[in-house]
Amino acid sequence: MADSPSRPFAHVDAPNAELYRRVMNVFTASKRRFVVHLRPEDVIGALRGDGGPAVTQEQAEDALKSLEGWGNLRADPDTSRVTTVEDFYRARFLYQLSREGEAAERALAVYEQEIGRRGELQAVALEDIRVRLRNLADQPAHPDPAVVHNLLLELIGRLDSLAANASAFMGSLQRTIDLHEIDEEAFLAYKDRLIAYLERFVSELVVKHFEIAKTLRAFPEGRVTALLMLAAEREAADAAPGEEVPPTGQRLTEWRDRWSGLGSWFLGDRVHPSQAHLLRTRARKAIPDLLATVSVLQERRAGRSDRSADFRALARWFAQAETDEDAHRLWRAAFGLTTSRHLTLDPDAAPPDAPAATSWLDAPRVEIAARLRTSGHYQRRGGASKIVDRSKQRERLAVQVAAEREQTEAAKARLATGAPTRLSELGALDRQEFGLFLRLLGDALAAGPPGPDGTITTRTGDGALEISLTPLGGFAQIVTDDGVLHGPDHEIVIVDLNAAVARR
């Protein structure tokens, strides 16, 4: 079994993969505590305390043997507790992580970390890069190699963290803008903070990018090579003997690539813009994209359907069509594929008796105006229609709209107080107030499902009012000009969001 090739990732998709992962987690946790060897009973004790399903001794020992066979673990004979001849002949092993198994666990940890990475725009990393780059530029003519090496390591490490987190954040931001796997309520709740976050990072990036690029351009080429050589020589001093490539030259090539990456991030031209410029452009573009997404969500709340929803509904209708004839009729009705009626006949000629679907070959002869034959278009004789003056109608309509707006504002001022009120304590409502109340009540009841305490919170389609409705028990009656409304009593809170923003 020891001669078989190692397959340290085989346990990930094997049967009982969950048990194998639990066992490997026990070994990695022990390795962090500097415990190298574990006996089967140690593994069983750790499995009993990890919160997972119960594991028998036989299951644990089979898992250890399987992991040893795949190369994740190494087994050494355990002779430390042999007291009898029977104990000597009975197989006892001490298990530890093999080199392949430890590498596989690190790879899986990195994979899980990258998959779960949400990312962030690290404005602090920009400041760290600027400070370390300035410290590197201020080094004397014969600097300390340890200081130069540490500054370069910190500089490249911060750049790597900045690039990886920015890429992850912009990816998650695009998924947010596209509304993939996101809670719409949560998005509306934190959109203002997200936009402020983007604006702060863009402003920091503009200032720090200019300073970093200026410092990089001030570095002489010979000075950069000397500093990178110091770091390469310091790393090569610890290289193991027997390498085919000279260690100093190999390390110097690696450091030149890293420095080139630093330059491509902050230095660019019109043909090849820098990565910092591209990130700034993408972050700026994300702000109007987020606002457009908010508009889409408001349209959805108002009940307007988008084109994708229309096509899905049409697809369901096609699937439910009983015959091909029904499907053809639906096709013509949906896409306007009606028969051609674009010809204009002579107004003095009698209309044809044949239906519009009749073939040209079978239809009777029709007289067409000479103007249509010669010029390709036909225009009726006579004067143009007189322009009707509708200014008075528009004035009456404007007065009516202003009056309705004034009534609506008065009703809003009456109801949108921002204070919790029982429905039974609303008092009498006039016709305009009752109409607004019914619309708000309908929006709240249709927004469900309610929260743990039964509260429903929603906003109107235009985003102007926020309604919270909490059941209280009992019944309420609301007196209106048209009668009395009876129903379950609730606590209602109506907030005028526009007024709240104006007060701020």
Radius of gyration: 38 Å
Helix content bin: 55-70%
The shape is extended
What structural category arises from helix and sheet content? alpha+beta
Instruction: Write down the overall mean pLDDT.
Output: 78
Task: Count the domains.
Answer: 4
Beta-strand residue percentage: 5-15%
Side-by-side strand order of the widest sheet: 3-6-5-4
Termini distance?
A: 74 Å
For the report, how would you describe the main beta sheet? Answer: 4 strands, antiparallel
Order of helices and strands: HHHEHEHHHHHHHHHHHEHEEEH
Sequence stretches where pLDDT stays below 50 over 5 or more residues:
none
Organism: Actinomadura alba
InterPro entries: CHP02677
Protein name: TIGR02677 family protein
Question: Can you describe this structure?
Answer:
The protein has 504 residues and is of the alpha+beta class. The chain folds into 4 domains: 10-113, Winged helix-like DNA-binding domain superfamily/Winged helix DNA-binding domain (Arc Repressor Mutant, subunit A); 119-290, no CATH class; 339-379, no CATH class; 407-503, no CATH class. Helix content is 57%, strand content 9%. The protein contains 17 helices and 6 strands. It has helices at 17-32, 40-48, 57-70, 85-89, 99-115, 123-137, 145-177, 184-217, 221-236, 247-266, 275-301, 307-320, 324-335, 370-375, 391-415, 431-447, 497-503, and strands at residues 73-77, 93-97, 421-422, 456-459, 465-480, 483-496. Strands 3-6-5-4 form a 4-stranded antiparallel β-sheet. Strand 5 (465-480) and strand 6 (483-496) form a beta hairpin. Helix 6 packs antiparallel against helix 7, helix 7 (145-177) runs parallel beside helix 11 and helix 9 (221-236) crosses helix 10 (247-266). The two termini are 74 Å apart. 16% of the residues are buried. The model has no long low-confidence stretch (mean pLDDT 78).
